[in-house]
Design brief:
The chain is mostly helical and 194 residues long. The protein has helices at residues 3-28, 33-57, 59-65, 69-88, 104-115, 117-127, 133-159, 161-164, 167-185. The protein is globular and about 50 Å long.
Amino acid sequence: MEFIKILAIAVALAMDAFAVSIATGVNLKNVNSRQLFRLSWHFGLFQALMPIIGWSAGLSIRSYIEHYDHWIAFGLLAIVGVHMIKEAFQDGKAEKPIKDYTKGMTLVMLSVATSIDALAVGFSLSLLKISIWMPALIIGIVACTFTLIGMRIGERIGAANRLSLYAETIGGVVLIGIGLNILHEHGAFSAFFH
């Protein structure tokens, strides 16, 4: 497979990670190097591993997952998004520390949710009998890079005084919006519009 095609696929797959990293940066307001590393490393790692898993599974598992993988991604993003919105409206916000979404199960959930589409890419490449190793490496590096950039953009937006009061709400809405977009891309709403 040509490098340009692999790069185009990697950029397309990195868009969800990019948007989530912006939302995370907005929420954190001040991103330290550990948070930057954790999110970019995990997003890059999961984006690289998912196509390998999909490629390895080939056709045997595809039929079981493809009908609801988008619902899994939506569910994970919605859980984190609703939690962010809920935290934004809780009393005593000034005394509470900002929730760090680059740690624990939230980090894992976001990593899975933003990389689940890469499973399908792995399946497709296995059907085309294309080696997965170089595409997986490129996909992981691009996702890591986009996450780094996204967190810095989000940090600048979150640090703005006018937005800082609404940072968690905006971040939560963005995550839910990404989840809804994933459902839309997979035709989940087509029954409602026919």
